[in-house]
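Hello,

Following up on my earlier ticket. Below are the two sequence lines again, exactly as submitted.
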Amino acid sequence: MPDRPRFDGNGKGGKYPLGLGSVQAIPQVVESKDPYELKAAIFFRLNPLKSSGHTARWEAALKKLELIVAIDTQMSETARAAHYILPESHYLERTEALSVVGDTVSVRQPVIKPLHDTRSGWEIIQGLAVATGIGHYFKFSMEQYNNALLSTLGWTHEQVAEAGVLQVSSTPPNYGKLPTPSGKVELIQTRVQDAGGTSVVQWVPPKTRPEGDRLRFLHGHVPVHTNGYTQNNPHLFALMPENDLWIHPETAKARGIKHGDLVEVANEYGSGRLKANVTEGIRPDSVWMCHGFGTRSPEQHLAYGRGAADGDLYPIMITPIAAALGQGDATVTVRKVVV
Amino acid sequence: MAQRLTMVIDLNSCTNCQACVVSCSNANETPFWTGKGRTQVTDQLKGRQREFIPRLCQQCEDAPCERVCPTGATYRDASGVVKVEQEDCIGCKACMAACPYGARYVYDAEDLQHARARWGDILRVKNPHVDKCDLCASRRSGGLEPACVATCMGQARIFGDPNDPNSPVYKLYEKAVPVGPEYGTKPAVRYIRKAGRS
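Thanks for your patience. The regenerated structure is below:
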C-alpha cells in the first residue's frame, strides 16, 4: 500500500472518509501542493477540461504538471492537453469486466477486431503496470478476471459470452428485515455524522443567489447523448448537433431575446455562446443547458465549436461528506449577441 | 383472419431517446444526416408538459399513397404491409402529397451518393425513390423484428398482428387508438394514450 494519503483526501483517514474519489481536487492540489506536489496525472476515459467545472482553472493547473497521459477512444479536450495519448479500443472492439444488474450477469465482448492500432483499457493498464515495475499484480487477462468472479457460480466467461445475459438465482429481498443495524428504515445516518456531517439530511443554502441581472445556472442531460462522449457521433449529431439555453419568456423578453437568438452566457468563471430556447419549461430566475457540448477539440470535426459547455461556468466544487463534483451553485448573466 | 402486421405505440413509455431513429436509419440505410428518415419522434410542449410522439407510416388499410401511385411502386404485400418497389418509383411525389401523416420522404440522388460513401458494398438501396417504412421488411425476412422495436428501451413500440391471439399486440390493440381517424384511411398503427390525459 502507498505510504502517502490520497491527493484528494478521499477514503479512510482522509478528509472525506466516505468519498469514492474526487478528480476535481486536482487543480487545488496542484496550486497549493497540499497534501503534496502533484507531478503527473493519467486520465482514463475522463475529460475534466469539459466536465469538471471552471475549465480555465483546470487548464492552468494541468500546464503545471510534468506529465499528463490520456487514455481515451476519441480526441477529447483533455487528450489534446496530454503529453501522451494512449488510444483505447472502441467499446465494440474490447472485452470488459462482467456487468451485474439486479440478478443478471452480462459481459461486453468485441464484435469486431480493432480498426486501428489501439488496445483495451485493461491492456493499457497492464502495460503501464509492467513499465512501472508492478506488472506482477496484473498478470491475468480480462477473461481470467471474469472467470474468477464467476467461479462461485460455477460459470465461465465463455458461457456468459455465449449466452449474452445470464440470470442468477438470487434470494428475494426481505423487506421485513433490512440490512441496517435496527433492521428497519433508518433516517439517522451515523456514518454520515461520523464523517463530519449531520445525522439527518439538512438543507444547506447555496452560496450563490439569482439576484439583479444574475440568473441561476443549471445543466442536465438528454436521452439522445451520453455525457460528453457522443456529440461527434454522426447519428446522434444529426439528431442533436448543439445545445440551447432554456430561458423563460419573461426573462427573455426583459433582455430582448427571442427564440433562436444567439446569446452569450457569462460569469466570473467563463462564458459561452449558444441559441436561446424560450420556453415556459423553466423558472424565470434560472437558465438551463444540456451538458456535453461546446467541444473545443477540432479533431471532433462535427461537434467542434457547436453549442456551449456548462463546465466553463461552474466553480470547481467538492461537496461536503460525499466529495462529489458539486454543480448548480453558480449564477450567470445572459445577453443577446448582436452580430 | 388474414395476417396484418402493425405496431402499437405506448406513449407512456417513450423517453425521446431517439434510439429508434438511429437503429432505423442503420437498418434501412436512410439519409439520417439530412434529418430525413422512416421514423421520427416529435417533442411537443403541451402547456408545461412535454409530449413525445413516435411517428412512422401508419400502415393505412385504405392507403392514399398506394391509391395515387401511378406506377404501382407503392403496393401492399400479403401481410398487409405497404411497401415501395424502388425501381418502379419515378419520383413524382404524389404519395407525399396524398399522405396525411407526412410519413413519406424523398431519398434523392445526392442522398444515394452519400449513402454509397457511407455504407459501401453493403448498401441495398439502388435507386433514388420516395421512401417509407415497411416495418423493416429486410429484417423480418431474416426472422428479426423491426429495428425500432428491438432497440426501444422503454418497450414503447410493440409489434405484431392484432388478429393473432399469440401476438403481443393482440390484447393491447382494442385499448389503443388510431391517430387521425377522421382522414378515413383506417390506419393500422395505434397508440396507447398517456395515462391521465384525454
